[in-house]
Amino acid sequence: MKNRLKVLRAERDWSQADLAERLSVSRQSVNALETGKYDPSLPLAFRIARLFGLTIEQVFVDETF
């Protein structure tokens, strides 16, 4: 699943560690999300979207369709 995390994070000048702290996850988790190696749980996806003031669909793109 593609996402805009890296771009959204860069727009705010946050490091992966900064984003990880705000989401209560590890920096490694943020890296895995950004590189597409890990899809977030639904609660984490909601936390990410809320943090950026966006909907889940604005952050994550389902490419299966």
On the 0 to 100 scale, the average pLDDT is 95
Strand content: 5-15%
| Secondary-structure class | mainly alpha
Number of separate strands: 2
Largest sheet, in brief, is: 2 strands, antiparallel
The number of helical elements comes to 5
Instruction: Extract low-pLDDT stretches.
Output: none
**Percent of residues in helical segments?**
55-70%
Radius of gyration: 11 Å
Q: Going across the major beta sheet, what is the strand order?
A: 1-2
Structure characterization notes:
- By secondary structure, the chain is mostly helical.
- The protein has five helices and two strands, in the order βαααααβ.
- The protein has a two-stranded antiparallel sheet with strand order 1-2.
- α2 (16-23) crosses α3 (27-34).
- The chain starts with a strand and ends with a strand.
- The mean pLDDT is 95.
